[in-house]
Amino acid sequence: MARTAECQGDWLPATPTAEDVMKGEISLVGLPAYKLGKKIKWTASPYRNRSWEYVFQSLRWMGTLVVEYENTGEQRYLDRATEIAKDWVARNKYGARGTPSYVWKDHPVSLRTQPLLCLSRHVKASWLKDSLAVHAKLLANPRLYKKGHNHGIDQDIALMGIGCRYGRKDWANLAVKRLTGTVKLDVDAQGALMEQAPRYAVYVYGRLQVAMSNMKACGRKVPGTISKRAEALKDFIAHATMPNGYMVPIGDGSAETEPKMETGTPKQKVKAYRAGYVFGRTKWDEPESAYYSIRFGPGMKWHGHEDHLGVTYYAQGRDILMDGGFHSYEKSSYRYWTLSPEAHNVPTVVGAKFRPRTASKLVKTSYGSDRQAFRLTDKAYGVSRTRSVLVNHDDDLMAVYDTASGGKKVRNIWRFAPSLKLVSKERGKVVLGDGKFRVTLLQFTASCSRLGGQKVERGGKLGWVSPTYLSKERANVVVSPAAKSVLTVIVPGTDAPKVSCSGGKVKVNGVSFSAKVL
Known about the structure:
Blueprint: H1 18-23, E1 25-26, E2 34-35, H2 50-58, H3 60-72, H4 75-91, H5 106-120, H6 126-140, H7 150-165, H8 169-186, H9 199-217, H10 224-239, E3 270-273, E4 277-281, E5 291-295, E6 311-315, E7 318-321, H11 333-339, E8 347-349, E9 360-367, E10 371-378, E11 385-392, E12 397-404, E13 410-415, E14 421-426, E15 429-434, E16 437-444, E17 455-458, E18 464-465, E19 473-474, E20 476-479, E21 485-492, E22 499-502, E23 505-508, E24 511-514
Antiparallel strand pairs: 1-2, 3-4, 4-5, 5-6, 6-7, 8-13, 9-10, 10-11, 11-12, 12-21, 13-20, 14-15, 15-16, 16-21, 17-20, 18-19, 22-23, 23-24
Protein backbone atom coordinates (compact mmCIF):
# COMPACT_ATOMS: atom_id res chain seq x y z
CA MET A 1 0.00 0.00 0.00
CA ALA A 2 1.43 3.38 -1.06
CA ARG A 3 1.90 5.97 1.64
CA THR A 4 0.96 9.53 0.72
CA ALA A 5 2.39 12.87 1.84
CA GLU A 6 -1.11 14.04 2.79
CA CYS A 7 -1.57 11.18 5.27
CA GLN A 8 1.93 10.77 6.70
CA GLY A 9 2.71 13.73 8.92
CA ASP A 10 2.51 15.23 12.38
CA TRP A 11 -1.13 16.32 12.11
CA LEU A 12 -2.50 13.16 13.71
CA PRO A 13 -3.64 13.33 17.34
CA ALA A 14 -2.02 11.07 19.96
CA THR A 15 -5.49 9.93 20.93
CA PRO A 16 -7.70 8.26 19.96
CA THR A 17 -6.01 5.41 18.10
CA ALA A 18 -7.44 3.80 14.97
CA GLU A 19 -8.57 0.82 17.09
CA ASP A 20 -10.39 3.17 19.50
CA VAL A 21 -12.24 4.74 16.57
CA MET A 22 -13.10 1.30 15.12
CA LYS A 23 -14.53 0.34 18.53
CA GLY A 24 -16.53 3.56 18.54
CA GLU A 25 -14.88 5.14 21.60
CA ILE A 26 -13.00 8.39 21.23
CA SER A 27 -11.16 10.31 23.94
CA LEU A 28 -10.44 13.94 23.04
CA VAL A 29 -8.52 16.74 24.86
CA GLY A 30 -7.87 14.44 27.83
CA LEU A 31 -11.56 14.04 28.70
CA PRO A 32 -13.15 10.58 29.24
CA ALA A 33 -13.93 8.37 26.24
CA TYR A 34 -17.18 9.14 24.41
CA LYS A 35 -19.18 6.35 22.74
CA LEU A 36 -19.72 7.30 19.11
CA GLY A 37 -22.06 4.48 18.14
CA LYS A 38 -22.51 3.30 14.56
CA LYS A 39 -24.66 6.30 13.64
CA ILE A 40 -22.79 9.37 14.86
CA LYS A 41 -24.60 12.28 16.52
CA TRP A 42 -22.76 15.26 15.03
CA THR A 43 -24.27 17.79 17.43
CA ALA A 44 -22.84 15.87 20.41
CA SER A 45 -21.18 17.89 23.16
CA PRO A 46 -21.01 15.44 26.08
CA TYR A 47 -18.77 17.62 28.24
CA ARG A 48 -19.98 21.10 27.23
CA ASN A 49 -16.34 21.84 26.42
CA ARG A 50 -15.47 24.13 23.50
CA SER A 51 -12.10 22.47 22.85
CA TRP A 52 -13.77 19.03 22.72
CA GLU A 53 -16.33 20.30 20.20
CA TYR A 54 -13.63 21.82 17.96
CA VAL A 55 -11.48 18.68 17.99
CA PHE A 56 -14.52 16.46 17.38
CA GLN A 57 -15.46 18.56 14.34
CA SER A 58 -11.87 18.60 13.04
CA LEU A 59 -12.30 14.90 12.05
CA ARG A 60 -8.62 14.25 12.70
CA TRP A 61 -9.70 11.18 14.69
CA MET A 62 -11.32 9.89 11.45
CA GLY A 63 -8.01 10.51 9.67
CA THR A 64 -6.27 7.96 11.90
CA LEU A 65 -8.26 5.26 10.08
CA VAL A 66 -6.97 6.33 6.65
CA VAL A 67 -3.39 6.34 7.95
CA GLU A 68 -3.92 2.86 9.41
CA TYR A 69 -5.25 1.74 6.00
CA GLU A 70 -2.05 3.05 4.37
CA ASN A 71 0.10 1.33 6.99
CA THR A 72 -1.68 -2.08 6.95
CA GLY A 73 -3.57 -2.27 3.66
CA GLU A 74 -6.69 -3.44 5.55
CA GLN A 75 -9.78 -2.25 3.68
CA ARG A 76 -12.00 -2.10 6.80
CA TYR A 77 -10.19 1.02 8.00
CA LEU A 78 -10.76 2.90 4.74
CA ASP A 79 -14.39 1.76 4.58
CA ARG A 80 -15.20 3.09 8.05
CA ALA A 81 -13.31 6.35 7.39
CA THR A 82 -15.30 6.85 4.17
CA GLU A 83 -18.57 6.08 5.97
CA ILE A 84 -17.80 8.63 8.74
CA ALA A 85 -16.67 11.38 6.33
CA LYS A 86 -19.59 10.89 3.93
CA ASP A 87 -22.06 11.05 6.81
CA TRP A 88 -20.38 14.18 8.18
CA VAL A 89 -20.52 15.92 4.76
CA ALA A 90 -24.20 15.01 4.30
CA ARG A 91 -25.27 16.23 7.74
CA ASN A 92 -23.11 19.33 8.25
CA LYS A 93 -23.82 21.44 5.20
CA TYR A 94 -22.44 24.97 5.44
CA GLY A 95 -25.19 27.39 6.47
CA ALA A 96 -27.84 24.67 6.82
CA ARG A 97 -30.35 24.68 9.68
CA GLY A 98 -29.27 22.26 12.38
CA THR A 99 -25.54 22.65 11.65
CA PRO A 100 -23.93 24.19 14.77
CA SER A 101 -22.14 27.45 13.92
CA TYR A 102 -18.82 26.34 15.47
CA VAL A 103 -18.57 23.50 12.90
CA TRP A 104 -17.59 26.06 10.24
CA LYS A 105 -15.45 28.37 12.41
CA ASP A 106 -11.95 29.06 11.08
CA HIS A 107 -10.02 26.50 13.15
CA PRO A 108 -12.21 23.39 12.67
CA VAL A 109 -12.33 24.23 8.93
CA SER A 110 -8.55 24.43 8.59
CA LEU A 111 -7.82 21.39 10.77
CA ARG A 112 -10.50 19.28 9.06
CA THR A 113 -8.93 19.88 5.67
CA GLN A 114 -5.98 17.55 6.39
CA PRO A 115 -7.99 14.35 7.12
CA LEU A 116 -10.29 15.08 4.17
CA LEU A 117 -7.30 15.66 1.85
CA CYS A 118 -5.75 12.43 3.15
CA LEU A 119 -9.00 10.56 2.41
CA SER A 120 -9.15 12.13 -1.08
CA ARG A 121 -5.95 10.25 -2.02
CA HIS A 122 -7.88 6.97 -1.77
CA VAL A 123 -11.51 7.97 -2.38
CA LYS A 124 -12.30 9.65 -5.70
CA ALA A 125 -15.82 10.88 -5.06
CA SER A 126 -17.60 14.09 -6.03
CA TRP A 127 -19.09 14.61 -2.54
CA LEU A 128 -15.56 14.73 -1.09
CA LYS A 129 -14.08 17.00 -3.77
CA ASP A 130 -17.10 19.33 -3.52
CA SER A 131 -16.77 19.53 0.27
CA LEU A 132 -13.08 20.42 -0.03
CA ALA A 133 -14.04 23.19 -2.49
CA VAL A 134 -16.47 24.61 0.12
CA HIS A 135 -13.64 24.47 2.68
CA ALA A 136 -11.28 26.28 0.26
CA LYS A 137 -13.77 29.10 -0.40
CA LEU A 138 -14.12 29.74 3.33
CA LEU A 139 -10.34 29.51 3.85
CA ALA A 140 -9.79 32.05 1.05
CA ASN A 141 -12.40 34.50 2.40
CA PRO A 142 -10.46 37.55 3.69
CA ARG A 143 -13.20 38.35 6.25
CA LEU A 144 -12.70 34.98 7.95
CA TYR A 145 -8.90 35.08 7.92
CA LYS A 146 -7.08 35.25 11.29
CA LYS A 147 -4.09 37.35 10.28
CA GLY A 148 -1.06 37.37 12.59
CA HIS A 149 -2.25 34.33 14.57
CA ASN A 150 -1.61 30.58 14.64
CA HIS A 151 -5.15 30.02 13.28
CA GLY A 152 -4.16 32.04 10.20
CA ILE A 153 -1.12 29.79 9.72
CA ASP A 154 -3.39 26.73 9.85
CA GLN A 155 -5.77 28.37 7.37
CA ASP A 156 -2.86 28.96 4.95
CA ILE A 157 -1.57 25.38 5.28
CA ALA A 158 -5.08 24.07 4.57
CA LEU A 159 -5.68 26.36 1.57
CA MET A 160 -2.27 25.53 0.12
CA GLY A 161 -3.02 21.82 0.55
CA ILE A 162 -6.29 22.02 -1.39
CA GLY A 163 -4.75 24.30 -4.02
CA CYS A 164 -1.85 21.92 -4.64
CA ARG A 165 -4.05 18.80 -4.54
CA TYR A 166 -6.43 20.07 -7.24
CA GLY A 167 -4.11 22.31 -9.26
CA ARG A 168 -5.68 25.58 -8.14
CA LYS A 169 -2.74 27.99 -8.39
CA ASP A 170 -4.88 30.93 -7.25
CA TRP A 171 -5.54 29.26 -3.89
CA ALA A 172 -1.93 28.16 -3.43
CA ASN A 173 -0.58 31.62 -4.39
CA LEU A 174 -2.94 33.33 -1.93
CA ALA A 175 -1.90 30.96 0.86
CA VAL A 176 1.83 31.67 0.38
CA LYS A 177 1.29 35.44 0.17
CA ARG A 178 -0.89 35.55 3.29
CA LEU A 179 1.39 33.26 5.26
CA THR A 180 4.38 35.54 4.68
CA GLY A 181 2.43 38.51 6.11
CA THR A 182 1.06 36.51 9.05
CA VAL A 183 4.48 35.18 10.06
CA LYS A 184 5.87 38.76 10.12
CA LEU A 185 3.11 39.75 12.55
CA ASP A 186 3.11 36.58 14.66
CA VAL A 187 6.88 36.18 15.11
CA ASP A 188 8.93 39.34 15.53
CA ALA A 189 12.49 39.90 14.27
CA GLN A 190 13.89 38.72 17.64
CA GLY A 191 12.03 35.43 17.25
CA ALA A 192 9.43 36.14 19.95
CA LEU A 193 5.92 34.87 19.46
CA MET A 194 3.46 37.79 19.63
CA GLU A 195 0.47 35.77 20.88
CA GLN A 196 1.46 36.35 24.55
CA ALA A 197 1.64 32.68 25.57
CA PRO A 198 5.09 31.18 24.95
CA ARG A 199 3.81 27.60 24.69
CA TYR A 200 2.14 28.50 21.37
CA ALA A 201 5.63 29.11 19.96
CA VAL A 202 6.13 25.33 19.89
CA TYR A 203 2.88 24.88 17.97
CA VAL A 204 3.71 27.69 15.54
CA TYR A 205 7.23 26.36 14.97
CA GLY A 206 5.84 22.90 14.14
CA ARG A 207 3.19 24.30 11.81
CA LEU A 208 5.76 26.42 9.97
CA GLN A 209 7.85 23.28 9.36
CA VAL A 210 4.74 21.67 7.82
CA ALA A 211 4.02 24.79 5.73
CA MET A 212 7.60 24.91 4.38
CA SER A 213 7.63 21.18 3.56
CA ASN A 214 4.29 21.52 1.76
CA MET A 215 5.56 24.48 -0.28
CA LYS A 216 8.57 22.48 -1.43
CA ALA A 217 6.39 19.46 -2.27
CA CYS A 218 4.18 21.81 -4.30
CA GLY A 219 7.23 23.04 -6.25
CA ARG A 220 7.32 26.44 -4.57
CA LYS A 221 10.17 28.45 -3.10
CA VAL A 222 9.95 29.16 0.62
CA PRO A 223 10.04 32.94 1.29
CA GLY A 224 13.10 33.94 3.36
CA THR A 225 10.94 35.73 5.95
CA ILE A 226 9.22 32.46 6.86
CA SER A 227 12.38 30.34 7.14
CA LYS A 228 14.32 33.02 9.10
CA ARG A 229 11.58 33.66 11.64
CA ALA A 230 10.88 29.96 12.09
CA GLU A 231 14.57 29.51 12.90
CA ALA A 232 14.55 32.48 15.32
CA LEU A 233 11.62 30.92 17.20
CA LYS A 234 13.94 28.15 18.44
CA ASP A 235 15.93 30.59 20.62
CA PHE A 236 12.71 32.03 22.05
CA ILE A 237 11.45 28.53 22.92
CA ALA A 238 14.78 27.70 24.59
CA HIS A 239 14.69 30.88 26.72
CA ALA A 240 11.02 30.28 27.66
CA THR A 241 11.78 26.73 28.85
CA MET A 242 12.50 26.34 32.56
CA PRO A 243 15.39 24.20 33.88
CA ASN A 244 12.94 21.33 34.56
CA GLY A 245 12.30 21.02 30.81
CA TYR A 246 8.80 22.55 30.88
CA MET A 247 7.81 25.89 29.37
CA VAL A 248 7.14 28.73 31.78
CA PRO A 249 3.33 28.85 32.06
CA ILE A 250 2.62 32.46 31.05
CA GLY A 251 -0.68 33.45 29.43
CA ASP A 252 -2.72 30.55 28.06
CA GLY A 253 0.12 28.13 28.75
CA SER A 254 -0.12 24.99 30.84
CA ALA A 255 2.77 24.04 33.15
CA GLU A 256 2.88 20.59 31.51
CA THR A 257 4.10 21.84 28.09
CA GLU A 258 7.39 20.20 27.09
CA PRO A 259 8.87 21.54 23.84
CA LYS A 260 10.08 18.05 22.74
CA MET A 261 12.18 19.61 19.99
CA GLU A 262 15.85 20.43 19.47
CA THR A 263 16.31 24.13 20.17
CA GLY A 264 20.08 24.24 20.69
CA THR A 265 21.62 26.26 23.55
CA PRO A 266 21.49 30.05 23.14
CA LYS A 267 24.66 32.07 23.87
CA GLN A 268 22.97 34.31 26.45
CA LYS A 269 21.59 33.18 29.81
CA VAL A 270 19.40 36.29 30.07
CA LYS A 271 17.29 37.73 27.27
CA ALA A 272 14.88 40.67 27.15
CA TYR A 273 12.38 40.51 24.30
CA ARG A 274 10.68 43.65 22.98
CA ALA A 275 7.50 41.57 22.72
CA GLY A 276 7.30 41.82 26.52
CA TYR A 277 9.40 39.13 28.19
CA VAL A 278 12.53 38.86 30.27
CA PHE A 279 13.81 35.30 30.73
CA GLY A 280 16.89 34.56 32.85
CA ARG A 281 18.71 31.59 34.36
CA THR A 282 21.88 30.70 36.24
CA LYS A 283 23.04 27.99 33.84
CA TRP A 284 21.87 26.03 30.82
CA ASP A 285 21.21 22.28 31.01
CA GLU A 286 21.12 22.13 34.79
CA PRO A 287 17.82 21.24 36.56
CA GLU A 288 18.95 22.96 39.80
CA SER A 289 19.53 26.27 37.98
CA ALA A 290 17.54 29.31 39.10
CA TYR A 291 15.14 30.76 36.50
CA TYR A 292 12.82 33.75 36.32
CA SER A 293 10.41 35.46 33.94
CA ILE A 294 9.12 39.06 33.91
CA ARG A 295 6.23 40.39 31.79
CA PHE A 296 5.71 43.78 30.12
CA GLY A 297 4.98 44.99 26.57
CA PRO A 298 1.87 45.51 24.41
CA GLY A 299 -1.58 45.37 26.00
CA MET A 300 -3.32 42.02 26.41
CA LYS A 301 -4.46 40.25 23.24
CA TRP A 302 -4.85 36.77 21.75
CA HIS A 303 -3.63 34.29 24.41
CA GLY A 304 -2.32 36.86 26.89
CA HIS A 305 -3.34 37.58 30.47
CA GLU A 306 -3.31 40.82 32.49
CA ASP A 307 0.08 39.86 33.91
CA HIS A 308 2.19 42.97 33.22
CA LEU A 309 4.97 43.60 35.75
CA GLY A 310 4.36 40.03 36.94
CA VAL A 311 7.19 37.62 37.77
CA THR A 312 7.68 33.87 38.11
CA TYR A 313 10.60 32.29 39.98
CA TYR A 314 12.11 28.80 39.94
CA ALA A 315 15.09 27.92 42.14
CA GLN A 316 16.89 24.92 43.64
CA GLY A 317 15.04 22.52 41.36
CA ARG A 318 11.51 23.64 42.13
CA ASP A 319 8.78 26.20 41.42
CA ILE A 320 8.74 29.02 43.97
CA LEU A 321 6.46 31.74 42.49
CA MET A 322 3.81 30.75 39.94
CA ASP A 323 1.14 32.47 37.89
CA GLY A 324 -2.50 31.47 38.33
CA GLY A 325 -2.01 29.42 35.15
CA PHE A 326 -4.21 28.31 32.26
CA HIS A 327 -7.38 26.38 33.09
CA SER A 328 -9.29 26.16 29.78
CA TYR A 329 -11.04 28.23 27.12
CA GLU A 330 -14.45 27.72 28.74
CA LYS A 331 -16.50 30.86 29.34
CA SER A 332 -16.51 30.49 33.11
CA SER A 333 -15.98 32.97 35.95
CA TYR A 334 -12.85 31.03 36.94
CA ARG A 335 -11.39 31.28 33.43
CA TYR A 336 -11.95 35.06 33.49
CA TRP A 337 -10.37 35.27 36.95
CA THR A 338 -7.21 33.50 35.64
CA LEU A 339 -6.88 36.36 33.12
CA SER A 340 -7.12 39.08 35.80
CA PRO A 341 -4.22 40.83 37.57
CA GLU A 342 -5.19 39.07 40.83
CA ALA A 343 -4.16 35.72 39.32
CA HIS A 344 -0.56 36.94 38.83
CA ASN A 345 2.37 38.14 40.96
CA VAL A 346 1.80 41.84 40.33
CA PRO A 347 1.53 45.17 42.19
CA THR A 348 -1.90 46.80 42.34
CA VAL A 349 -2.63 50.47 43.13
CA VAL A 350 -4.93 50.87 46.11
CA GLY A 351 -8.17 52.76 45.41
CA ALA A 352 -7.51 53.08 41.67
CA LYS A 353 -9.44 51.38 38.89
CA PHE A 354 -7.63 48.90 36.68
CA ARG A 355 -7.54 49.74 32.96
CA PRO A 356 -7.49 46.54 30.89
CA ARG A 357 -5.15 46.08 27.91
CA THR A 358 -2.68 48.76 29.01
CA ALA A 359 0.85 48.51 27.59
CA SER A 360 3.91 48.61 29.88
CA LYS A 361 7.59 49.41 29.32
CA LEU A 362 10.95 48.03 30.38
CA VAL A 363 12.79 51.27 31.15
CA LYS A 364 16.08 50.22 32.78
CA THR A 365 18.27 47.11 32.87
CA SER A 366 21.45 46.09 34.66
CA TYR A 367 23.18 42.85 33.66
CA GLY A 368 25.82 41.11 35.73
CA SER A 369 26.97 37.48 35.62
CA ASP A 370 25.74 36.83 39.17
CA ARG A 371 22.76 39.20 39.24
CA GLN A 372 20.42 41.14 36.96
CA ALA A 373 18.03 44.01 37.64
CA PHE A 374 15.15 45.53 35.67
CA ARG A 375 12.72 48.43 36.04
CA LEU A 376 9.26 48.38 34.48
CA THR A 377 6.41 50.86 34.48
CA ASP A 378 2.91 51.49 33.16
CA LYS A 379 -0.30 53.42 33.81
CA ALA A 380 -2.64 50.44 34.16
CA TYR A 381 -4.22 52.14 37.19
CA GLY A 382 -4.24 55.68 35.78
CA VAL A 383 -1.09 56.68 37.67
CA SER A 384 2.46 55.42 37.08
CA ARG A 385 3.06 52.10 38.78
CA THR A 386 6.69 51.08 38.81
CA ARG A 387 8.34 47.79 39.70
CA SER A 388 12.07 47.08 39.99
CA VAL A 389 13.19 43.44 40.05
CA LEU A 390 16.59 42.08 41.10
CA VAL A 391 17.56 38.42 40.82
CA ASN A 392 20.74 37.19 42.49
CA HIS A 393 22.24 33.83 41.47
CA ASP A 394 24.25 31.20 43.37
CA ASP A 395 23.09 32.82 46.63
CA ASP A 396 19.52 32.63 45.32
CA LEU A 397 17.18 35.50 46.02
CA MET A 398 14.68 37.74 44.28
CA ALA A 399 14.05 41.33 45.42
CA VAL A 400 11.14 43.39 44.10
CA TYR A 401 10.44 47.08 44.81
CA ASP A 402 6.97 48.51 44.03
CA THR A 403 5.74 52.13 44.06
CA ALA A 404 3.04 54.30 42.47
CA SER A 405 3.02 58.03 41.63
CA GLY A 406 0.76 60.71 43.10
CA GLY A 407 1.18 59.54 46.67
CA LYS A 408 -0.88 56.40 45.98
CA LYS A 409 -0.34 53.24 47.97
CA VAL A 410 0.49 49.88 46.41
CA ARG A 411 -0.22 46.32 47.43
CA ASN A 412 1.29 43.20 45.91
CA ILE A 413 0.35 39.54 45.49
CA TRP A 414 2.68 36.53 45.70
CA ARG A 415 1.41 33.11 44.60
CA PHE A 416 3.56 30.19 45.73
CA ALA A 417 3.68 26.68 44.28
CA PRO A 418 0.83 24.50 45.68
CA SER A 419 3.29 22.16 47.46
CA LEU A 420 4.52 25.03 49.67
CA LYS A 421 2.44 25.24 52.86
CA LEU A 422 2.42 28.02 55.46
CA VAL A 423 4.93 27.37 58.26
CA SER A 424 4.95 30.71 60.09
CA LYS A 425 4.00 34.39 59.76
CA GLU A 426 5.29 37.23 61.92
CA ARG A 427 6.27 40.91 61.57
CA GLY A 428 6.79 41.10 57.82
CA LYS A 429 8.21 37.58 57.51
CA VAL A 430 6.32 34.65 55.99
CA VAL A 431 7.86 31.15 55.84
CA LEU A 432 6.48 28.40 53.62
CA GLY A 433 7.69 24.83 53.37
CA ASP A 434 7.44 21.47 51.68
CA GLY A 435 9.00 18.65 53.73
CA LYS A 436 12.39 20.00 54.82
CA PHE A 437 12.50 22.67 52.09
CA ARG A 438 11.78 26.25 53.19
CA VAL A 439 11.31 29.57 51.43
CA THR A 440 11.11 32.94 53.19
CA LEU A 441 9.29 36.11 52.10
CA LEU A 442 10.32 39.38 53.80
CA GLN A 443 8.74 42.82 53.27
CA PHE A 444 10.07 46.32 54.03
CA THR A 445 9.37 49.94 53.17
CA ALA A 446 12.02 52.01 51.31
CA SER A 447 13.14 53.43 54.65
CA CYS A 448 13.95 49.88 55.86
CA SER A 449 11.01 49.50 58.26
CA ARG A 450 9.67 45.96 58.45
CA LEU A 451 6.25 45.86 56.81
CA GLY A 452 3.91 43.63 58.84
CA GLY A 453 0.28 42.63 58.39
CA GLN A 454 0.51 40.21 55.43
CA LYS A 455 -2.58 38.14 54.67
CA VAL A 456 -2.03 34.53 53.63
CA GLU A 457 -4.83 32.83 51.75
CA ARG A 458 -5.05 29.23 50.52
CA GLY A 459 -8.16 28.67 48.42
CA GLY A 460 -10.83 31.28 49.04
CA LYS A 461 -10.85 34.15 46.55
CA LEU A 462 -7.19 34.32 45.52
CA GLY A 463 -5.42 31.11 46.57
CA TRP A 464 -5.65 29.03 43.40
CA VAL A 465 -3.43 27.82 40.59
CA SER A 466 -4.20 25.74 37.47
CA PRO A 467 -0.97 23.90 36.62
CA THR A 468 -2.63 21.64 34.02
CA TYR A 469 -5.64 21.78 31.69
CA LEU A 470 -8.96 21.81 33.62
CA SER A 471 -7.16 21.46 36.98
CA LYS A 472 -7.56 23.79 39.95
CA GLU A 473 -5.39 23.48 43.06
CA ARG A 474 -5.19 25.41 46.29
CA ALA A 475 -2.00 27.45 46.64
CA ASN A 476 -0.80 29.89 49.28
CA VAL A 477 -1.03 33.52 48.26
CA VAL A 478 0.65 36.23 50.32
CA VAL A 479 -1.00 39.66 50.04
CA SER A 480 1.03 42.60 51.33
CA PRO A 481 -0.40 45.45 53.37
CA ALA A 482 -0.95 48.72 51.51
CA ALA A 483 2.05 51.08 51.62
CA LYS A 484 3.63 53.91 49.60
CA SER A 485 6.53 51.58 48.82
CA VAL A 486 6.87 47.82 49.22
CA LEU A 487 10.19 45.95 49.03
CA THR A 488 9.67 42.18 48.83
CA VAL A 489 12.61 39.80 49.26
CA ILE A 490 12.16 36.09 48.50
CA VAL A 491 14.86 33.72 49.73
CA PRO A 492 14.55 30.06 48.69
CA GLY A 493 16.13 27.23 50.71
CA THR A 494 15.97 28.74 54.21
CA ASP A 495 13.58 29.79 56.98
CA ALA A 496 16.23 31.91 58.74
CA PRO A 497 18.03 34.21 56.31
CA LYS A 498 20.45 36.71 57.91
CA VAL A 499 18.89 40.06 57.07
CA SER A 500 19.81 43.67 57.77
CA CYS A 501 18.38 46.86 56.32
CA SER A 502 19.63 50.36 57.11
CA GLY A 503 20.41 53.58 55.28
CA GLY A 504 18.62 52.33 52.16
CA LYS A 505 20.91 49.26 51.93
CA VAL A 506 19.72 45.68 52.36
CA LYS A 507 21.92 42.69 53.14
CA VAL A 508 20.59 39.13 52.91
CA ASN A 509 22.95 36.22 53.69
CA GLY A 510 25.88 38.43 52.66
CA VAL A 511 24.23 39.67 49.42
CA SER A 512 23.93 43.49 49.41
CA PHE A 513 21.64 45.66 47.28
CA SER A 514 19.74 48.96 47.38
CA ALA A 515 16.32 48.96 49.06
CA LYS A 516 15.04 50.47 45.80
CA VAL A 517 16.78 47.60 43.91
CA LEU A 518 17.97 49.74 40.97
